[in-house]
Automatic annotation (TrEMBL):
It comes from Acidaminococcus fermentans. It comes from the Bacteria. The keyword Iron does not apply. Residues 9-147 form the DAGKc domain. One of its GO terms (molecular function) is kinase activity. This is Diacylglycerol kinase family enzyme. Keywords: Kinase, Transferase.
């Protein structure tokens, strides 16, 4: 998809949204001061009539700001938070068919979108990059009635995500997921094989593939710096479906090691398919699935790409 340039100084309505409870901010107070610095610079650029700065701390507050963006026709939305905050705001806009320009300042737990768009936490570097006004189209996915930008997963990873509490996420950051991964392996696979099974149909071809876990990715990165597939990109209007077919504890430990080494494609028990449409059903009802690191939807799943991308200034 083509990139283009916009004159950011021409925007009449600009909003900076800061999730002060996101990820690393609890132990790295410098993130807070960085966001405040960005707010001051944007205020000098636009003035109080054109620029607003709001802080959120809960999902409900984030949703309310999303509605505000649509109602006030904010032209440029800057999100200082993680992928979950970004997903929630984008979802509100898409649901109301409003498509502002968006930028992300990485202040969350994992920050996959910011990482792929090469957005750094250094304020000078961040301001310099967005001041150029170069846009990147980001394709969006929809799982049932919920939006995602990077990944949709169901199985072991979504069970881990579901069990991480907001308090653990706030104070332990990525370590919270490591801690819960150990618990899931111990509780669900140590004394018996993984009991959950998924059937996956790709592009409506009528063939149901069997899997013990499923990851649908449309990003270059997964769970931080790792890459599941070759050619993944936020701007590529294609999803990649990773089917993990084995269900023993040793299999999931092997999958984890291969993901960490960026060598997942070497495992013949992992099937990877490009897709535009994915349907997933489970042997139990309402198994939790995760979208961009939040458990916000349950099986059965119908996953597809939206026809229109969202433009990110990055």
């Amino acid at each position: 998809m083509l990139r283009h340039k916009v004159d950011i100084e021409g925007f009449e309505r600009v909003l900076l949204v800061h999730n002060h409870n996101s990820g690393k901010q609890t132990f790295f107070s410098g993130i807070h001061s960085n966001v405040e610095s960005i707010a001051r610079q944007l205020m000098r650029m636009y003035g109080a009539e054109r620029f607003q700065y709001v802080k959120v701390g809960t999902f409900a507050e984030t949703q309310a700001v999303g509605k505000k963006i649509c109602a006030e026709k904010i032209q440029w939305v800057i999100v200082a938070g993680g992928d979950g905050t970004l997903r929630a705001l984008v979802e509100e806009c898409v649901d109301q068919d409003y498509w502002p320009y968006v930028s992300i300042y990485p202040a969350g737990t994992v920050n996959l979108v910011a990482k792929e768009l090469m957005q750094k936490t250094d304020v000078h570097n961040w301001m310099y990059r967005v001041s150029k006004g170069v846009t990147t189209p980001v394709c969006l996915g929809r799982a049932n009635d919920r939006i995602f930008l990077t990944v949709a997963g169901i199985g072991v990873d979504s069970m881990v995500v579901q069990q991480v509490t907001p308090k653990e996420k706030k104070y332990l950051s990525t370590l919270a997921y490591v801690r819960q991964s150990g618990r899931v392996l111990g509780n669900e696979m140590l004394l018996h094989n993984w009991k959950y099974r998924f059937q996956v149909m790709i592009n409506g071809d009528g063939v149901w593939h069997q899997a013990s876990s499923v990851i649908v990715t449309k990003s270059r990165y997964y769970a931080g710096r790792f890459s599941l597939v070759n050619g993944g990109s936020l701007s590529n209007p294609t999803m990649h479906v990773c089917l993990f077919t084995k269900g023993r504890c040793v299999d999931f430990l092997r999958y984890t090691a291969l993901i960490a080494a960026d060598m997942l494609t070497l495992d013949k028990s992992v099937e990877i398919y490009p897709a535009q449409q994915v349907d997933i059903r489970c042997n139990v009802s309402k198994f939790a699935a995760e979208l961009d690191g939040d458990a916000v939807v349950t099986s059965p799943l119908s996953i597809a790409l939206l026809p229109k991308p969202l433009e990110f200034i990055s």
